[in-house]
Amino acid sequence: MAHYQAVGNIPPKRHTQHRRPGRGRAPGELYYEELMGEEGFSSDSSLLYHRNIPSTTVRAAVWELPDQSTTPNHPLVPRHLKLHDLFDAKAVRGTDVVTGRRLVLGNGDVRISYAVAAQPSPWYRNGIGDECVYVERGRARVETVFGSFDVGEGDYVILPRATTHRWIPRPSTKDPLRVYCIEANSHIAPPKRYLSKYGQLLEHAPYCERDLRQPDGPLLAEDIGARPDEQTEVYIKHRGSGPGGVVGTVHTLPFHPLDVVGWDGCLYPYVFNVRDFEPITGRIHQPPPVHQVFEGWNFVICNFVPRKVDYHPLAIPVPYYHSNVDSDEIMFYVDGDYEARKGSGIGKGSISVHPGGHPHGPQPGATEGSLGVERFDELAVMVDTFRPLELGEGGLAVDDGLYAASWSRGLGSTAAPGGAHSEG
């Protein structure tokens, strides 16, 4: 995100001496400058000033990741995945956002996981790509080397590749922390069509820089009650020969990772809340790109928010039937009443998988039922991928096996995938 920030203690000129306060006439020790940059020094970057040499480790061990294997969606069928069935109350008590993720869908460009967590996560960084973590329910504090955020329902947390951070759920009497994790093998950014050639969000964009929350910082070990010299483990996800090309390592550092006294640049984590997205509407039905909020390599992220719908006198508010010729469409239903899926069994916490090559659209009766509707009260997060997605172990565990037959109900008995039957 090319929106310059400067936080904490930095020198007036980059790549020059920057020292701690000295004693008497003796100069203080140098801080250690780290460039965190994208695309080999050719894109956005930030400079971080550490108390310690950031390359230092005292131990490395294998992190056995949760199951990252995937199964092709073959034979090709649309699917309904019930994410709220993935974690029971007992499992949640011992789960954290990092090690407790269950893989729902994935391909060589992006992995979608889900976690319901009550425990603080270990320190963690993704060395493969950026992460976009959507907070479905609950609250948490996210601590990073750039600073910290308090996050809650509706927040997208964008974490650039290699950002060391951890998640600390906040106690809630209402909802546990539920997060929908989109892990890229690339960077995640606002759509290019909404940016000027210098990176500013343009006037027709559905959000602007004022809507983005930058981290509060700097954040140092002593600010959270830790010792600066506290030996700390950092969990790292990186490329390797494991399932999906993803493996894990745990590095032990001889110091606490929160040692950045200042930083500046255009690369850092930020938070955007879905309620600040200004929907683009029209007299007739608008196509999904108007709902786009972010993009990565070979995928886009969209959100469908409460909004006024089509106002032509003969408008049909729900989508027309469409074939995903070039993409798989993954819709995560967060809140509200999704008009086009009435009668399908889909509700809050559901995912619909509409694979490329299969035409899909409203359930039977939904088109007529939408006529005259002036407003949709719905909230959903959609990921469209331009390569086929396969099912992770989490997705296979909560597939209802009935969704493919939902357009056939009322036409007689229809066999559904997996041997289940839906009676009309």
How many H/I helical runs?
3
Work out the helicity level. Answer: under 10%
Rounded to the nearest angstrom, the distance between the terminal CA atoms is 51 Å
What is the overall silhouette? globular
Query: How large a portion of the residues is in β-strands, by DSSP E?
Result: 35-45%
Structural class: mainly beta
Strand order of the largest sheet: 5-30-7-8-15-10-13-20-16
Number of strands: 32
Organism: Terrabacter terrigena
Protein name: Homogentisate 1,2-dioxygenase
Family: Belongs to the homogentisate dioxygenase family.
Cofactor: Fe cation
Give a description of the structure.
By secondary structure, the protein is mainly beta. The protein is built from 3 helices and 32 strands. The strands form 8 sheets. A 9-stranded antiparallel β-sheet has the order 5-30-7-8-15-10-13-20-16. Strands 6-26-25-29-22-21 form a 6-stranded antiparallel β-sheet. It is globular, with a radius of gyration of 23 Å.
Characterize this entry briefly.
With 424 residues, the protein is mainly beta. It has helices at residues 89-93, 366-370, 393-397; strands spanning 5-8, 32-37, 45-50, 59-63, 70-71, 79-82, 102-106, 110-117, 123-126, 131-137, 139-144, 147-151, 155-159, 165-170, 177-184, 212-213, 232-239, 246-253, 260-265, 270-273, 292-296, 299-304, 307-308, 322-323, 328-336, 350-354, 359-360, 375-376, 378-385, 390-392, 414-415, 421-422.
